[in-house]
Amino acid sequence: MTDASDCRRPLDYRERARAALPAHVWDYIEGGAGDELTVAWNSAAFDRVSIVPRTMVDVSACDLSCELFGARYATPLGVAPMAYHQIAHPEGELATARGAGAAGALCVVSIFASARLEDIAAARSGAEASGPLWFQLYWLRRREVMLDLAARAGAAGYRALVVTADTPRLGDRRRDRHNGWAVPAGVRAVNLDAAVMASAHRRRPGASALAGHAEEAFDPSATWHDLEWLVARAPLPVLVKGILDPADAQLAVDHGAAGVIVSNHGGRQVDGAISALRALPPVVDAVAGRVPVLLDGGVRRGRDAFVALALGATAVLIGRPVLWALAAAGADGVAHQLRLYRDELENLLALAGRPRVRELGRDAVAHG
Ligand SMILES: Cc1cc2nc3c(=O)[nH]c(=O)nc-3n(C[C@H](O)[C@H](O)[C@H](O)COP(=O)(O)O)c2cc1C
Ligand SMILES: CC(C)CC(=O)C(=O)O
Q1: What is the dihedral of CA 294, 278, 218, 105, to 10 degrees?
Q2: Which atom of ligand 2 lies nearest, measured to the CA of 28?
Q3: Where does the FMN hydroxy acid dehydrogenase domain lie (predicted)?
Q4: FRET label pair with 182: which of 67, 164, 208, 312, CA 20 to 30 Å apart?
Q5: Which of these, 220, 294, 314, 215, lies nearest to 252 by C-alpha position?
Q6: Cβ distance 188 to 112 under 8 Å?
Q7: Residue 368: what pLDDT?
Q8: Cβ 139 under 6 angstroms from ligand 2
């Protein structure tokens, strides 16, 4: 375990996590599809955008809050949904939720969480921990399971559902194939039926057990009509995650989405897919303020969050860097990591003379 205070910027947690984790777990977390072109493009896209500071603005108080579904969120930063946090730390999602709560950040819990969604909500509502939880779903062949989870999330106090649209099957994760990756026996997706999950644990040389499991459990025939079906039955607003094309953003809203998340799944699905940041402005234009647009993929600094917010995101989600901090230092690491992002963002808002997140616009950045 690392002393969290050794890490001065979000990227500092990366090597700590690599040292703390078995190589096959590291490869599953860090890897992407194919040659991992999109993994690299996601973060490189942020480096190609400059910030245009204003001067002589009163920045004595910066406001990082954003509004989502009628509620005020303390920061525009959140944890992206990621499966099986127990592979990174024995306390898994309970630690992530506590850490995110302590930092006042949104936490999106994966359908493949390794803790019960009700226990995650309880961990979150401890004395220090607060802040919103959302729950993520995949399009399962067994639709009744989706509805059951949606109802449980609603009853447990989750505030929104996220349905991931970019995974009709799993992308070609070469590292996982090479490692014959399977979810370790002691780590379970406890919100789902153990019988349904068995194939995720079945090791086969030269194959990813998760790819096999996804083929079995995910419904590759889901279309926009299925979104309407889900929206009509869900007790919570439904966001669609995995949008890259403005036409899809439009269709999502037309079929009842309460929000869209611009994402290429951290480069884990279509290798060579457009970077999330590059895809963002056309999606924001197509949605035209009707619903919030969020982004994930490659956000590695507070500065990257600033850029995405300026280009029209209401909030940004952070994936792998949260698992790095979880692996290195548990709940304290997650809280510290999210504070590093927040403090960098706050400092930049002040230095750039743009003290309110909700007023950030495209004039705050320039390309090149
Ligand atoms: C280990 C891992 C597991 C993931 N599991 C899920 C998941 O269960 N559901 C989902 O919608 N996305 C999942 N994702 C994708 C993330 O939600 C997010 O889109 C991506 O990690 C963002 O990119 P970043 O890691 O560069 O920040 C996963 C990503 C990683 C790295
Ligand atoms: C269990 C997997 C489907 C989780 C996932 O989305 C991923 O590994 O990217």
Answers
A1: -30
A2: 8
A3: 2-368
A4: 164
A5: 294
A6: no
A7: 84
A8: no
Structure tokens at 76: 């525009």
> Which regions of the chain does DSSP assign to beta strands (E)?
49-51, 66-68, 71-73, 77-79, 106-109, 133-138, 160-164, 238-243, 259-262, 293-296, 315-318, 365-367
Residue 300 tokens read as 């590695």
What ranges do the domains of the chain cover?
Answer: 4-367
Q: Which two tokens stand for residue 57?
A: 């603005």
Q: Which of 190, 210, 264 to mutate to test the pocket of ligand 2 (most atoms within 8 A of CB)?
A: 210
Structure confidence by residue, pLDDT tens digits, 185-198? 999 999 999 988 99
129 lines ligand 2 (CB under 6 A): no
For 101, the token pair is 């709560």
Write the CA distances from 216 to 141, 173, 219, integer angstroms: 8, 17, 8
Ligand 2 mean position, distance from CA 184 (Å): 14
C-beta neighbour count of 220 within 10 angstroms: 11
> Is the complex ipTM more than 0.90?
yes
